[in-house]
Design a protein that fits this description.
alpha+beta; 20% strand
């Protein structure tokens, strides 16, 4: 993800928030690896309640900015489902039996 557009957006978000006290405005890459980039956003507010609300506001708006402008940079999970792994098998192995026998001490199951 390009950092400079993220910094510009971060500053724009802060400038538009009444919670920001205009003292701290720092966005820095705190870690990078082959597949991930960790960004640290520092900001300040007049009191702890305002600081918490400001952090949540900034996090949500930066995420929306990344989703809109750089969706390819956000994590995606890809899973492969195999047909044989997705079908539940009854305990007796017969897919048409409705579940097989009850285990000892188990309540009887209704079958449709």
């Amino acid at each position: 993800m390009p950092i400079e557009p993220l910094r510009v957006e971060f500053t724009r978000i802060l400038a538009g928030s009444p919670r920001w006290d205009m003292k701290v405005n720092v966005l820095q890459v705190s870690d990078a690896s082959e597949h991930t980039l960790q960004v640290r956003a520092l900001m300040s507010a007049a009191d702890s309640g305002s600081a918490w609300d400001l952090r949540c506001e900034v996090r949500e708006k930066l995420l929306a900015f990344a989703q809109k402008n750089y969706p390819e940079c956000l994590p995606r999970n890809r899973n492969e489902l195999r047909p044989e792994a997705t079908q539940a098998r009854p305990r007796d192995g017969n897919p048409h039996s409705g579940g097989g026998r009850n285990e000892p001490g188990e309540k009887p199951r209704a079958q449709l």
